[in-house]
Write a structure and sequence with these properties.
The complex is a heterotrimer of chains A (300), B (244) and C (362). Chain A is mainly alpha-helical and 300 residues long. Chain A has helices spanning 2-28, 35-44, 64-85, 95-117, 143-165, 167-177, 179-184, 189-215, 222-237, 242-262, 271-285; strands at 122-123, 133-136, 139-142, 217-218. Chain A has one domain (2-294): ABC transporter involved in vitamin B12 uptake, BtuC, CATH 1.10.3470. In chain A, β2 (133-136) and β3 (139-142) form a beta hairpin. The radius of gyration of chain A is 19 Å and the shape is globular. In chain B, 38% of the residues lie in helices and 27% in strands. Chain B has a six-stranded mixed β-sheet, with helices on both faces. Chain B has a four-stranded antiparallel β-sheet with strand order 2-1-4-5, covered by helices on one side. The longest helix of chain B has 18 residues, at 173-190. The two termini of chain B are 35 Å apart. In chain C, a hairpin with a 2-residue loop joins β3 (298-300) and β4 (303-305). In chain C, α14 (256-269) packs across α15 (274-296). Chain C has a domain at 9-256: ABC transporter involved in vitamin B12 uptake, BtuC (Orthogonal Bundle). Classes of the chains: A mainly alpha (300), B alpha/beta (244), C mainly alpha (362). Chains in contact: A-B, A-C, B-C. At the A-C interface, α4, α9 and α11 of A face α8, α14 and α16 of C.
Chain lengths: 300, 244, 362
């Protein structure tokens, strides 16, 4: 039971991260390496600049119903800003160039945070009420884990509804599948891309919020690890396929947790090596990803 | 008055010139076939009109406005609807969603929802098969049905000009007949202007209308499709390339 | 009219590129020598090391067009191999007790160690390449990344032979500049020889026109594997020398930061160009160095001007973005530095693509 919840909550993080990367990849074929730094940024947005180990809280004391929108807005805002200032200039550049540009941008954000806050992780307590355990079917599960899972599911439903039921969502799905064709039908490229960045940034902020409440620290490196796994999930899910990204995110989370319990003690430190090995196997058998994105499918 | 006017259009990709000094006018309500062998520059020309690959030099006017170098979405919003080669349906979207994508451009106008709904009914009336399968994924349709879908999708934007790249590509002849039958009927009902690219000139001669014959990026002939049919220049243009 | 594909004539026409690059590298070495400053000497050694790594990346990425995030894994293999082969047995006994006895007793000179490290990395490149290179595009990139992460995880946890995440110290330090210079020049010539070889030409043909190349019988997987192994060897050699330049290795020395800085140098220089690989290193390294000096503070008269910590990285990031915004294909794009007199009629013989082929989408 505990294992199941561990798997689900870790998977939730990866799934949300993978979604954020897949959304942007879908509309502009950009593998956004700055995503992880947007995650860190949204958490640090809660703090006043300082180099002390204990965080000087800025917006972190807000009640939850203001705190959450504030963080989401910071993530979305930074993400949109990146698009406006940087990525707009790279339309149509080859993917490697865009990738390196996004990496350079992430670098800039990271060191900007470092300058303001130093590299030491800071302890913060966000929403402390959530660390109490609750009892579910006889197992004691941290409330936060439950909320993480529930929130992820809620986000997934909301996003699905947005994509399926609204005009903007329809335009976005069309653009993700065939950008040029969508433009030839009057879909405004810049608006769709900006929307994707805003959503992706908000998702990054959601991850930041969850991570910060889970670990009780704000760390400049915190986004990086999630981003790498999310990035892998995006690819094995089928680049550009949103359901694929979510599925693969949960699978990766599950694989990590399950291997942790199943591997013999001696091999446990090497768990990640096995996870990555599994990733290679999946890629070899399904190079298009688990759910091939329609844009890459061969035409009938 | 001419709806579409191309003057001195040249399109280069690197050192390769795909289209050289092409000029023509298209009158409102006219039907124009652009034909010619593979590599004649027909598709490049269409992509330039749609704003996907702007011409290296020359000028394109639509409805009296210079549209050279405008973005594809701007050009679409002015009333040019493109049906590109290979159909390009949004395979993961349902048929109805495919049809609705282009209606967003009118969202600023007050009654767009009811207008879009009416438009949708009209398209379903023209292509009943689309209505029947409106909630299934477009990627699952047959080639002929996809062709109907993309034509329907182009109609949904309520355009003044529809440009179609090789509507007969990959379709069985009787399906092509059906597609053309609908196109001609539509043109009659809605006073549409049609620009159709085909590799072979046989279709143009069957349907009638004006035809431009291209080869090697240049316009060889421009005139009435049926009259052109038997001319020697026509035979020469295709000579050695094999007629399809 | 000679056959343009005859290797000898291609070699004669393109030899100016490696020669010019060699001249640039030698010039750097001479400046370091003339300055006589120890820190500057170390800086130039760092530049040479990066040249080796980035040229190693170019051999695979530049020619195949497949982005690899995994090559620093081979550098890791090379670095640790150098540690195993050249450390004094005493040190190994305490730090790496799990090494097999024959390896424990061995202590080779650094150059022999580097050579074996290159072969060791090449061996693993062959193994991984055999598995991974049937993939292409972004799937291949991710698979190479997974490979890097695997290597990193194993080296970070295999306590008895890698000392896990602790530093392996006691690797003999080589301070003179020459071995690094020679290795850098060697990698440039290896890259050049591969680029004009039949395998290199076929690989670039496959990169630019995959369908046509496959139709004319190019075995893409095989040609990629050849490039992968050669570049793996160069990366391994770079890793070994890296270890000798600082005397310490940790798994995280050879992980994401090094991966991205080397890739950035390649992309900024021009991904499909050997000259770009070298120039990317020289330009970005000089920039980093200049910023470091500024960070340390520049004394003018009695006042010291300095930039705050962190600004170095920020400036570097911004400069990279600006360069890429103005030159999306990198500083050299797809062309090579050539001796003006020797300019061949077919312009980009080494980089393969003519602009015409690139522009046409169908």
């Amino acid at each position: 039971m505990q294992t199941l919840f561990d798997a689900l909550s870790l998977g939730s993080l990866y799934a949300l991260g993978a979604l954020g990367i897949a959304l942007i990849f879908g509309v502009m074929r950009l593998v956004n390496f700055a995503h992880g730094d947007v995650i860190s940024f949204s958490v640090f947005a809660l703090l006043w600049p300082s180099t002390d180990a204990v965080a000087l809280v800025f917006a972190g004391d807000l009640p939850w119903f203001l705190l959450i929108p504030f963080v989401l807005l910071m993530g979305a805002g930074l993400s949109v800003l990146c698009e406006l200032i940087i990525f707009r200039r790279f339309r149509g550049a080859n993917p490697a160039t865009m990738m390196i540009a996004s990496f350079a941008l992430g670098f800039v954000i990271r060191y900007f945070l470092l300058m303001l806050f130093s590299s030491r992780p800071k302890s913060i307590s966000l929403l402390p009420a959530l660390s109490q355990p609750v009892e579910i079917l006889g197992a004691r599960i941290p409330l936060l884990q439950v909320i993480t899972i529930v929130a992820t599911i809620a986000i997934l439903f909301a996003l699905t509804a947005f994509l399926k039921r609204t005009r903007f969502g329809l335009e976005m799905r069309a653009a993700a599948e065939n950008f040029t064709m969508a433009r030839m039908l009057g879909v405004r490229a810049n608006r769709v891309i900006m929307g994707a960045f805003a959503l992706s940034g908000a998702l990054a902020a959601a991850i930041g919020l969850i991570l910060a409440s889970q670990t009780g620290t704000a760390d400049i490196q915190m986004g990086g690890a999630v981003m790498l796994m999310a990035f892998i999930a995006t690819v094995i899910g089928g680049l550009g396929s949103l359901p694929g990204a979510v599925l693969a995110g949960f699978l990766l989370g599950a694989a990590s947790v399950v291997m942790q319990t199943l591997l013999p003690i001696d091999a446990r430190p090497f768990r990640d090596a096995f996870v990555y090995g599994a990733v290679i196997l999946v890629l070899i058998f399904r190079p298009q990803g688990l759910i091939a994105a329609p844009g890459t499918k061969e035409r009938v | 008055m001419s709806l579409l006017a191309l003057s001195n259009i040249t399109i280069r990709y690197g050192r390769l010139t795909a289209v050289r000094n092409v000029a023509f006018n298209l009158i409102e309500g006219e039907i124009l076939f652009i034909t010619g062998p593979n590599g004649a520059g027909k598709s490049s020309l269409l992509r330039a009109i749609a704003g996907v690959t702007p011409p290296s030099s020359g000028r394109i006017d639509f409805g009296g406005q210079d549209i050279t170098g405008r973005t594809p979405e701007d050009i679409a919003r002015m009333g040019v609807s493109m049906v590109p080669e290979g159909r390009e349906v949004f395979g993961s979207l349902t048929i109805q969603e495919n049809l609705m994508v282009g209606t967003g451009m009118h969202a600023r106008e007050g009654n767009w929802r009811s207008r879009a709904a009416a438009e949708l009914e009209a398209v379903y009336e023209t292509f009943p098969i689309l209505k029947e399968r409106r909630h299934s994924q477009a990627g699952l349709l047959s080639g002929g049905q996809q062709q109907m879908l993309v034509i329907g999708r182009a109609l949904m934007t309520n355009p003044r000009l529809i440009a179609i790249d090789e509507p007969s590509l990959g379709l069985a002849p009787n399906i092509t007949d059906q597609v053309y039958e609908r196109l001609i009927a539509l043109r009659r009902h809605r006073a549409l202007t049609l620009l159709i690219v085909e590799q072979s000139s046989t279709r143009a001669q069957m349907v009638g209308g004006r035809m431009i014959l291209m080869r090697g990026g240049e316009v060889l002939l421009d005139g009435d499709a049926r009259a052109m049919g038997q001319s020697e220049a026509m035979q020469a243009a295709y000579f050695g390339y094999g007629d399809h | 009219m000679t056959d343009p594909n005859k290797p000898a004539s291609v070699a004669r026409r393109t030899i100016s590129t490696p020669l010019i690059l060699t001249a640039i590298l030698i010039a750097l070495a001479l400046i370091a020598l003339a300055s006589g400053s120890r820190p500057f000497n170390q800086t130039v050694i760092d530049i040479f090391l990066r040249v080796i790594l980035v040229v190693g990346l170019y051999i695979f990425i530049g020619n195949s067009g497949v982005m690899s995030f995994g090559h620093i894994g081979f550098t890791c293999l090379g670095g640790y191999a150098a540690a195993w082969l050249t450390m004094p047995p005493m040190m190994k006994q305490t730090l790496l007790p799990g090494l097999p006895n024959w390896l424990m007793q061995l202590q080779l000179p650094y150059w022999a160690g580097a050579l074996i490290a290159a072969l060791w990395a090449a061996l693993w490149a062959a193994v991984f390449g055999k598995i991974l290179l049937r993939l292409s595009g972004i799937a291949a990139s991710i698979a190479t990344f997974a490979m890097l992460a695997m290597i990193n995880t194993i080296y970070s946890n295999w306590e008895s032979v890698t000392a896990a995440t602790s530093s392996v110290v006691g690797i003999p330090i080589v301070r003179t500049i020459w071995p690094y210079l020679i290795a850098a020049i060697l990698s440039v010539f290896i890259a050049w020889a591969h680029a004009i070889s039949r395998a290199g030409l076929a690989l670039r043909a496959a990169r630019d026109e995959p369908t046509a190349a496959a139709a004319s019988g190019v075995d893409i997987t095989k040609e990629r594997l050849i490039a992968f192994v050669i570049s793996g060897a160069v990366m391994g050699m770079g890793g070994a020398l890296f270890a000798h330049s600082i005397g310490v290795v940790t798994p995280d020395t050879f992980y994401l930061t090094l991966t991205f800085t080397s890739l950035s140098m390649l992309v900024v220089g021009g991904i499909g160009s050997l000259s770009g690989a070298v120039l990317g290193v020289v330009i970005l390294s000089s920039l980093i160095q200049a910023l470091r000096w500024l960070e340390a503070g520049v004394t003018v008269g009695s006042t010291t001007f300095g930039i705050p910590n962190g600004l170095q990285e920020i400036t570097l990031g911004i400069v990279m973005i600006v360069i890429l915004a103005f030159r999306p294909s990198g500083i050299m794009a797809n062309s090579e530095l050539i001796w003006p007199r020797a300019r061949p009629e077919k312009p980009d013989e080494m980089s393969g693509t003519t602009p015409t082929q690139q522009g046409v989408t169908k």
